[in-house]
Amino acid sequence: MSATGIxxxxxxxxxxxFITGTANYTSDIxxxxxxxxxxxxxxxxxxxxxxxxxxxxxxxxxxxxxLTGADLANDKIGGLICGWAITSKDGSPMKMGAHPAIAAxxxxxxxxxxxxxxxxxxxxxxxxxEKVKVDYAVLPSVVDxxxxxxxxxxxxxDVAPNxxxxxxxxxxxxxxxxxxxxxxxxTKLEIVNNRLVPNAIEPRAAIAEYDxxxxxxxxxxxxxxxxxxxxxxxxxxxxxxxHKLRVIAPxxxxxxxxxxxxxxxxVVALWAARRVKRPVKWVSxxxxxxxxxxxxxxxxxxxxxxxxADGKITGLRVRTIANLGAYMSTFSSSVPTYxxxxxxxxxxxxxxxxxxxxxxxxxxxxxxxxxxxxRPEATFVVExxxxxxxxxxxxxxxxxxxxxFVKSFPHQTPVIMAYDAGDYDxxxxxxMEMVDYRNFxxxxxxxxxxGKLRGIGxxxxxxxxxxxxSQAVGSxxxxxxxWESAEVRVNPTGSVEILTGSHSHGxxxxxxFAQLVSERLGVPIETVSVVHGDTDKVQFGMGTYxxxxxxxxxxxxxxxxxxxxxxxxxxxxxxxxxxxxxxxxKDGKFTVKGTDKSVGWGDVTLNAYVAHKFTGxxxxxxxxxxxxxxxxxxxxxxxxxxxxxxIDPETGKTTIANWVAVDDFGVIINPMIVEGQVHGGIAQGVxxxxxxxxxxNADGQLITGSFMDYAMPRAGDLPSFKVDTTMTKCxxxxxxxKGCGEAGAIASPAALINAITNAVGHExxxxxxxxxxxxxxxxxxxxxxxxE
Amino acid sequence: xxxxxxxxxxKSHAVDVAPETLxxxxxxxxxxxxxxxxxxxxxxxxxxxxxxDGAAVKSCTMLAMSADGASVTTxxxxxxxxxxxxxxxxxxxHHGLQCGFCTPGMIMSAVDIVNRKGSELDEQTIREELEGxxxxxxxxxxxxxxxxxxxxxxxxxGKSARAAE
Lengths: 788, 165
Ligand code: FES
Ligand code: FES
Description:
The structure holds 2 protein chains of 2 kinds.
Chain A (H helix, E strand, L loop, with lengths): L14 H5 L15 E7 L5 E7 L1 H4 L4 E6 H6 L31 E2 L5 E7 L2 H8 L3 E6 L25 E8 L1 H9 L3 E12 L8 E7 L4 E6 L4 H11 L8 E4 L15 H13 L3 E4 L2 H7 L3 E12 L5 E11 L29 E8 L14 H19 L3 H8 L6 E2 L5 E2 L4 H12 L4 H10 L3 E10 L7 H6 L8 E7 L5 E5 L8 H13 L6 E4 L17 H28 L6 E4 L2 E4 L5 E3 H10 L13 E6 L8 E11 L4 E12 L6 H21 L30 E5 L16 H18 L10 H17 L1
Helix pairs in contact in A: 9-10, 9-18, 14-15, 15-16, 17-18, 18-19
Chain B lengths: L2 E6 L2 E6 L6 H8 L18 E4 L2 E4 L12 E3 L12 H8 L9 H15 L5 H7 L11 H15 L5 H4 L1
Parallel strand pairs in B: 1-5
Antiparallel strand pairs in B: 1-2, 3-4, 3-5
Helix pairs in contact in B: 2-5, 3-5
The structure holds FE2/S2 (inorganic) cluster (FES) (2 copies).
One FE2/S2 (inorganic) cluster (FES) sits at the interface of chains B and A.
């Protein structure tokens, strides 16, 4: 291992600009002559728009234009779409309601945009927005997914009777029912997977500029996938032809899924910029973000696990209602289906699985992928079921897991996934050692002496990452392929530029991708730059989500580097008058096999460009190669998290006494960055389990609409984590990488709720387990103790 | 429009501002110092922390006019020419940042913590003192490490921000 190659904890190259305040986020950009945009948003969850009067607003100081949904429709700007088609059990297609970028006749959630005001300054736009008069006829609303399909529930989209988007299933119903009929033991749970607000700390933003001379548009936006944004805005929304639309996602301040999607505000900014022929800048404030960023999770699930007399799992049956909110966001349909139910086998060999998922509209913000996307929900179902089953059967939860682990690979589950490699025993064993499981009883007794309750909980999770084989996802309804592209440009002086279709918004690609180049070409990472996030520079790419940038993005770079190496060997061959087949390349040096003749990297790159040693007939000058990499399978990161908590029954406060994570991410490029990803993921999972929950009242008002009301994890809520890894190589990609971005968020909620329920001695602890909730739960334990 | 006279990172500015202008707007929009960020509208996230006369302030919560006559240090003014402030160095060394959006506010708050609490900070103190700064990326684990290490480095001859202000 070289000091900067694969496996080295190299300090991040990108940090210099972030720690000195010289980074370039979208809201930092200011274009000459720009106007500021501010949206008029619906205060009602459900209403028809009878009339909009913009006259008074237009007369306000500084106002350049006030535009409405009618103007948008007149200009034939298309609506937003969901790009993954799901087919219901009965063969009918999902029911996608129209989603105009500005509502024209009806609003369907609080925050729905009804007009946009453009003015010289932001405050002028905000002041004028208050003067836009909207005459609403308020309709009854529904926010609870479990009630959305009830008779008489308000109808949100005409195309979706009873608000049902699809009623989908997977697995063999009859075989699973038979497994339950003959089960020795059945564990049943009712689970609510609480609704979350992603809350990347950088709010969304968009700046659009129109170049009249070339009839071309440029959009700077806070996107995890600028090329996908360009494709959708061009091909489906019809804003401009793809070659006349440039999308730039500069430094982006976190995404966690919420910045994958195409949002109305960026569409409106582009359209408005062309109309007023001035750059248009929109920056969300946090209150808007709470109302309009796509939320995550929000499942209501009935789950059952069947076991035989030996504690072997024989079946798993699930019925889930998934709330997709008022409109179908870009990839919303895939989250509670192919990203959820396909992971219900967990780390276990389960012969029969059947899952039914009903997706519904409600008068709430759209719901889409949020860190883990479907896989945290699946892990929570499986890991709660297994833990509770162990408790009911009086078997140690670790032993019940071991008994049911998949042990030989490849392993085909009954729900599509073919696990290719793993060692679940190894990560469980290591985690148990790290947490000192053997002495948990002693620690529990100590806590009890202090009047505290102590509990421990496991989560042995699996996820499907490296998203995804294009043909496979195409057959499941995806509207796009999920390969990745890379281009390696070697300059005459030997420095290297990597152009990637993935996008970094905190993941450290500028460092890890450079490490791969350093390892392969023997060049220092300082001479490697990584270019991403600009559709004019990078030809195409699918962006960053689903823990894919290592497994898929770096595989594309690796393929392109193979080609670079081949060509460089040819150049070296001409330089040393040897056949390319006789050239060896190692540590940045080209050697003629069996001789001491060699040339260095810089000599070869220069010769590739001056082209003095070969003719045009022999070899093309230059050193630049590209590659597209389409994965052949998902990757399957897996591992074990163990949470140990101490609860004060007087206050209901849960203190995390111990957190151990042992993950198998395959080959790791930079362990420092990987650990950081794990920490951040755990924090979001702890947030879900203990603190966070988006809550609407019956009228559809978001009552957790700011950082005052929605509990974000703060430093004092979290412990330091003990993080380690085990390793089985991923067999399906050239680097052996599985991916690490989502694991923490996927594993942690189940571990924590398993620990809390273990401490209080019963299973009735919903998320978020706030002090109030835990206090109530703990009182039962206290009373039981008193009665003994 | 009233004029605000303010020293920012050692340089004096006289700026005409609308009375409702916030200090963060003055910094970002008038002086184009965009290292100070805005992450919320309820004074909760701390992405906007700067030092005003040596003390940490959420610049989204202070009117520009209240800074009249004050000396302000932003993240851009923390490094001493080419050499980073020890707290900046510690954030890089300990991977105390991912997307970087919370980072300027975190670093400015961290320096302020050291100025108030000294350079020997235990984990619990650091976690409690970071109450006003939200990070969504790092889970705080490495931020806590960075602040502890940065604090020690500040004592060990690293430039104190307060001394510079
Ligand atoms: S922007 Fe000042 S505290 Fe959030
Ligand atoms: S590093 Fe992204 S919010 Fe802290």
